[in-house]
Write a structure and sequence with these properties.
With 234 residues, the chain is mainly α. It is built from seven helices and four strands. It has a two-stranded antiparallel sheet with strand order 1-4. A two-stranded antiparallel sheet has the order 2-3. Helix 5 packs antiparallel against helix 6. The protein is globular, with a radius of gyration of 19 Å.
Length: 234
């Protein structure tokens, strides 16, 4: 690979990492709003099917980005992006903590109570999300590369979905459980939100498979990569 190609690959890696980090941080900031996506009017354990947090919307993008980075740049680079996401989330926590601590002026469009209502639970939310995120993302990367080695780089759909399904269940179980533990949501919502959140993420994972195929195809065409070949940025 030429120096020009390596520089281009480095820039693309940084953009993918930026999409990953942005999706992760935003999902932690907007989680308190819940919506009801109602293709089916079904209730599960007291909660309507697909009654989920808006924070779930950008979160599957993080798994698409780590799968794409894993496929093209390798396991090490994917883990580096995960660590960057953890740092960014805790740094955003610090900014929110300081913003919540300083008093609002009398004419501020957003007063202290409004700010605390919107962001007051963010510290607990980010902590909950980080615990789930740590388990889920590292599980996703490990399983993805297990299937990649087993299939010798073939059957991309299999490793994309199998790795995401298990990791998303771990993520959903952990974050919903911790939110209930911290009394942000009631325990009677646990099973309903767990099942709804997991099924929603499974559907999204299935829908993002064509985008992963497209991304891998474009990378292989641009950088003339063979099946199972990865870009070494060093």
């Amino acid at each position: 690979m030429t120096l020009k190609d390596k520089l281009a690959a480095q820039r693309i890696y940084m953009l993918l990492g930026a999409l990953f980090v942005t999706s992760l941080v935003v999902s932690n900031l907007i989680f308190q709003k819940f919506f009801y996506w109602h293709p089916f009017d079904v209730e599960i354990f007291g909660s309507k099917l697909f009654e989920v947090s808006v924070g779930i919307l950008p979160y599957p993008i993080t798994f698409l980005m780590t799968d794409l980075i894993s496929e093209i740049y390798g396991k090490k680079r994917a883990n580096q992006v995960v660590i960057a996401g953890i740092f960014a989330s805790f740094f955003s926590l610090l900014i929110i903590f300081v913003g919540n601590a300083v008093p609002a002026t009398s004419w501020s469009p957003v007063n202290n109570d409004m700010f605390s209502t919107v962001f007051g639970n963010t510290i607990l939310a980010v902590f909950s999300s980080m615990m789930a995120y740590l388990f889920a993302q590292f599980i996703d990367i490990q399983i993805y590369h297990f299937w990649k080695q087993l299939t010798k780089g073939k059957h991309l759909w299999l490793r994309n979905n199998f790795s995401t399904w298990l990791s998303q269940f771990v993520d959903t179980f952990t974050v919903v459980g911790l939110l209930c533990l911290f009394h942000i949501i009631a325990w009677d919502k646990f099973l309903g939100l767990l099942i709804s959140g997991f099924l929603f993420k499974v559907l999204v994972a299935a829908c993002d498979t064509p985008f992963l195929y497209l991304g891998v195809y474009l990378f292989r065409k641009r950088f003339k990569l063979k099946v199972n070949e990865e870009i070494d940025l060093l």
